[in-house]
Amino acid sequence: MASKFFILGFFLILAMVSCKAEKPVEQKKSAPPVIAKSRPVALSEEQRTELGFPSRIIAQVEVAAGVKAEPFFATVVMRSENLKGDKGFESKKLAGFSIHTTKADDIMEKFRASFRSRGYLIFRSHRGYGALPDIVTVIKGNNSYDILKVQGTEGINYNLDTKAIITWLKAHQRDASFMIIGAGPDWLEARFIKPPRNMRAFAKKVSAFAPDVLTRDTRSVEKLSESMQKTNGFNLAWE
Fold this sequence. Notes:
The structure is a single chain. This protein is of the alpha+beta class. The protein has helices at 2-19, 45-51, 55-65, 104-117, 145-151, 162-171, 199-209, 221-231; strands at residues 70-79, 88-101, 120-126, 134-140, 177-184, 187-194, 233-237. The longest helix has 18 residues, at 2-19. The radius of gyration is 30 Å and the shape is globular.
């Protein structure tokens, strides 16, 4: 009889344990992702010789930025033709030097005129948007449109090549006088030398040619016009 009570008690205890709420499994917190940043490669002595830029120009930018210059490579299309019918292939060519800096505007403003008088152009080649340093680059050139040619600036989604963009810019120099101060593969920024008389009308032309400039902060032509007035310049972008 005692054994029966013992067995019954055992099953009652087992049932009580199984009815208890299970303790939730703690989710292990994953470690935050680590973003590996490649260290900039300094411009070597061989590359400095290959460039043939005056050493003073490179030194001035290095001192102003507080960092060593890096090589800047432009993408060029090498003309050739093979049995497959390929007419060319892309290659990298050393075309200037760059520096990473959070003082891009000050450095460009400081050297733009003196460099241009000597046949060199300084411009923003990459935008960090405040989260990362900008990249400022120096190349040979006398006309700011040379910046677009070196960068190969295009609006692929709008069937605009570099030549078409330069043609549009030249045509609108009649509305306002400006110069290119920055460019990348699908964007450019310009600074007014003489602003247009009607900023809203010019902003309308800008948004029609490069619709992607109408961002979250400048959803309308009116907002874009106000931004252009404030910055004394304009951007073109084709995302």
